[in-house]
Write a structure and sequence with these properties.
The protein has a domain of 169 residues: 2-Layer Sandwich (Alpha-D-Glucose-1,6-Bisphosphate, Chain A, domain 4). The chain is 31% helix and 28% strand. The protein contains five helices and eight strands, in the order αβαββββββαβαα. Strands 2-3-4-5-6-7-1-8 form an eight-stranded antiparallel β-sheet.
């Protein structure tokens, strides 16, 4: 068997730079202004094997009919405007470096009036795609890939996720109304992306249940549930403020 050519080795090295490092534990290096860093730092990234609920693959597509643009330009805009393409209840805070491999995107969302502070890690990023992977406690366990490509002379924008609910509480929420709400988010994102290029067309959506079984061996994931922890964080905010005020008063008294 012949050794790989220098060209293939160079290509492999370039592709390796597009992936996050092998460290599965998330480290939040800096918190963007206005973001709440909760349920992310120190958590491990998790895929479909580590989730609890049914496994779904969902694909959202929109065609940029008539737009004179390349896939590379589309993904560059998508990365730069990732927060502004989100609906109001879904606030994204990318790292200062942007959507780069290994960087964290903090998410401060509101679900049914309740806060959910979480985030995602950029697992992979190149000129025409990027993949975001979830941490423990996130509503889903899995990843989503955002890409642009040409099909029959038209640039297509796509969001494709492979994920399952992280714990029993999330699974129940998705079955009641959460799945439809989540699907509306990614429709909104694609429509905003298309509108940036002055295109107004519907989003094509398909979903397939890959595995209908529940993974009961992952029921313990509920201890990381970001919705529960975010609610407790919000409810205890007055106590934290009073404790901080007391410490500030003591420091002022000691300095006088």
């Amino acid at each position: 068997m012949s050794d790989p050519s220098p060209q293939s080795q160079d290509a492999a090295a370039r592709d390796a730079a597009n992936w996050a490092s092998g460290n599965v534990q998330i480290k939040v290096a800096a918190i963007p202004q206005g973001a709440v860093s909760l349920n992310v730092d120190g958590r491990e990234v998790v895929g479909p094997l580590q989730g609890f609920g049914q496994l779904w693959q969902k694909t959202y597509r929109i065609a940029l009919n008539g737009a004179t643009v390349t896939p590379v330009e589309v993904v560059r805009v998508w990365k730069e405007h990732l927060p502004s393409f989100q609906p109001r209840q879904n606030r994204f805070f990318p790292a200062l470096e942007g959507v780069e491999p290994g960087k964290i995107v903090l998410i401060n969302a509101t679900v049914s009036g309740m806060p959910v502070h979480t985030g995602v890690m950029v697992l992979y990023a190149d000129d025409i795609s990027f993949t975001l992977m979830t941490p423990q406690g996130h509503p889903e366990s899995g990843w989503g890939t955002f890409s642009a490509f040409e099909e029959d002379g038209t640039v297509m924008c796509q969001v494709q996720s492979l994920a399952r609910a992280n714990d029993p509480l999330y699974e129940m929420g998705f079955r009641m109304a959460g799945a439809k709400a989540q699907e509306q988010i990614w429709r909104h994102v694609l429509q905003c992306l298309a509108a940036y290029f002055e295109v107004n067309v519907p989003v094509d959506f398909h979903k397939t249940c890959i595995d209908r079984r529940l993974q009961w061996n992952q029921i313990g994931n509920i201890r990381y549930n970001a919705a529960i922890r975010s609610a407790l964080y919000t409810l205890t905010a007055p106590a934290r403020w009073l404790a901080g005020a007391g410490k500030r008063s003591k420091r002022t008294a000691g300095e006088s």
